[in-house]
Amino acid sequence: MRRMFIFGLGFSASRIAARLAAQGWEVLSTGRSGTLAFDDSGAVRLALADAEAVLSSVPPGGEGRDPVLAAYGDALAGRWLGYLSSTGVYGDAAGAWVDETAPTGTGRRSARADCDAAWLERGARVFRLPGIYGPGRSPFDRLREGKAHRIDLPGQVFSRIHVDDLAAGVIAGLAGPPGAYNLADDLPCPQNAVVEEAARLAGLPLPPLLPLDQAGLSPMARAFYAENRRVTNRKARRVLGWAPAHPTYREGLRAVLAAGG
């Protein structure tokens, strides 16, 4: 039986684990719903010794260090390595397209960029992810909770990925060469368009269109709007043979709604 060890069994990694299990993999993991505690070094190292593949979705820790590499980097050699990173490593591109050759480390995610680079140095497949949505984490949930926003920022665009397309991309990466891969859909667009489509599909009222300074956003959310870029997925298509089953937010939102989201 093939064995995968996942550090950090969160929203995205759980979908990856479920797909792997359906394909006959044994999956062990750390995280809130994982099978092992991250700091149970003996048990983790024993599991790593039997794993042929290791995936980390753990974010940067204190001082920008990667917690997995700091604690278990010496136990990862000779295995397939994967790391869930962020397209935030590219920083602001003023709405231009970015691919995996674009500079990293200039934006708000400098710590993430450092960890991204550290995993690449280890020979990992580094999956750079934009905004992730799916059942249980979507504009429908934010609309129902009164937490959705429409921000008046003409020209602002973002990329996104349905969580099932993310999972499919990581699994495609099991047979792909090391390197960075953007996993995004085909249609970067304003966040307002996504919120408006979700409200239309669910029959929910639209939140008001507000200037950024009047929207009451958290500092983290405001920082999200400080960057503007389009992320291309052409390398993942070409090298991994992957393509999103939900090529735009329209198909993705309909799938979330059909799944009870």
User: In terms of per-residue confidence, which ranges show pLDDT below 50 for 5 or more consecutive residues?
Assistant: none
Order of secondary-structure elements: EHEHEHEEHEEHEEHEHEHEHH
Q: What is the CATH C level class of the domain at 79-259, in words?
A: Alpha Beta
- Give the class from helix and strand content and strand pairing: alpha/beta
**What name is given to the CATH topology of the domain at 79-259?**
Rossmann fold
Keywords: NAD
Protein name: SDR family NAD(P)-dependent oxidoreductase
InterPro entries: NAD(P)-bd_dom_sf
Protein described:
- Helices cover 36% and strands 16% of the residues.
- The chain is α/β, with parallel strands linked by helices and 261 residues long.
- The strands form 4 sheets. A 6-stranded parallel sheet has the order 2-1-3-4-6-10, with helices on both faces. A two-stranded parallel sheet has the order 5-12. The chain has a two-stranded parallel sheet with strand order 7-9.
- Strand 3, helix 3 and strand 4 form a beta-alpha-beta unit.
- Helix 1 packs across helix 6 and helix 7 packs parallel to helix 10.
